[in-house]
Amino acid sequence: MASARELxxxxxxxxxxxxxxxxxIKKYGPCSLETHKNYYGRLVRSIVGQQLSVKAAASIWxxxxxxxxxxxxxxxxxLKADPEKLRACGIxxxxxxxxxxLAQHIIDGRLDLEHISNMPNDQLIEQLTAVKGIGxxxxxxxxxxxxxxLDVLPVGDLGIRKAMMRLYGLPEMPDPAMCITIANKxxxxxxxxxxxxxxxxxxxxxxx
Length: 208
Prior knowledge:
The chain is mainly alpha-helical.
């Protein structure tokens, strides 16, 4: 989990390791990665907000909460919820299926939220992406912006790839494998998440 002290350490480390990244770190100042404890709530909301503007997602989310008397429904309640009532909140039928699949994974223990913060990255990604509607990108965002993990490189994020292309003067956007190569070459580990945060800032397009 990210602490202010650890983030400051990461900033110094990355600025020393990567001369290309150093000016961006100086320009945008301290990295801010807030962590959250309500893992289930964050995952449900991430599904609701997929491919929507922040404003639209917030509006739909409020309608979902209202449907359950202003509270986040438990996995059990969500699983039993009437699909038509959820659809009336503005959620598409595929997303309703994803939400219920998430609930089922939590109920039967396939997604172990109790121990999720201690899982190795690979195991965590495997459990998250086993849920319908949660891909690698969503898993990476959860790991960075909910768990506060500092060693996650979101190679599937178009913003990261675009920022890398600009920063290193590449002729085209790097593919995920090239993103990993670049990160390794410039010594980002174990602070890939922090490097990614600064790349998002350089585009003025942070995902969170």
